[in-house]
Amino acid sequence: TLDRHKIIQRDTLYEGFNRLTELTYRYRRLDGEWSENVTREIFERGPAAAVLPYDPLRDRVVLVRQFRPGALIAGSTGWELEPIAGICENGELPKNTVRREAMEEAGCQINTLEKICSYNVSPGCVQEPVSVFCGCVDSQSVLKVGGDASEHEETEVFVLTFDELQSDLLCGNFTYALTIIAAQWLLLNRDRLREKWSINHRDK
């Protein structure tokens, strides 16, 4: 099998909360020849994980809202409902990340997790693989405000009925890919989860 790419050079341009890398590479064209050197700036964040907390007994989801400067620059208000998410710290497993972040951002204890998917945020220029889960929760036990003040984070916590989530999705009120992916998955899997997780709750 022929190599499909070659990394020529990799330089760190900036390292702060995130890292900006200049990557020079070649890729093999469809005719088998190598391309010329291509240089791109890559925004590196590292692996992240997210969870959509779902209460199967009350048929409700837990979402959070906090200020997102990137969304503001993109033309939105900078405030949008979204699943709970965070960066995987020091090799932390994604399932442990979402359990930690759920408690931190919403006071939300995850009882059971089911994997939704893994995806790359913007593979042409961003290094941030995201693992997405749905988590079984008691929506009556969550906080109204969460977040880690030391990280300049304040999250407003919302509990939506499934019908409200579905309406917002179908009306195009969500613009964050993570929210759309998780909500669409729940629409497809809600009945199965209600049966599976409600039985587990009754057994406890």
Summarize the structure.
It contains four helices and eleven strands; from the N terminus they run βββββαβαβββββαα.
Please explain how this structure is put together.
The protein has helices spanning 69-73, 94-106, 162-170, 177-203, and strands at residues 5-15, 19-27, 38-44, 48-55, 60-65, 84-87, 112-120, 126-127, 129-136, 145-146, 155-161. It has 204 residues and is an alpha+beta fold. The longest helix has 27 residues, at 177-203.
Helix-strand topology string: EEEEEHEHEEEEEHH
* Measured distance between first and last alpha carbons: 53 Å
Counted by DSSP, the helix tally is: 4
Morphology: elongated
What is the typical, i.e. mean, pLDDT?
92
Structural class: alpha+beta
Give me the count of strands.
11
Low-confidence stretches: none
Instruction: Specify the biggest β-sheet.
Output: 7 strands, mixed
Specify the helix fraction band: 25-40%
Using only CA atoms, what is the Rg? 20 Å
Strand content: 35-45%
Detail the topology: elements first, then pairings.
Elements: E1 5-15, E2 19-27, E3 38-44, E4 48-55, E5 60-65, H1 69-73, E6 84-87, H2 94-106, E7 112-120, E8 126-127, E9 129-136, E10 145-146, E11 155-161, H3 162-170, H4 177-203
Parallel strand pairs: 3-8, 4-9
Antiparallel strand pairs: 1-2, 2-3, 4-5, 4-6, 5-11, 7-9, 10-11
Quick tags:
204 residues, alpha+beta, 4-stranded mixed β-sheet, 4 helices
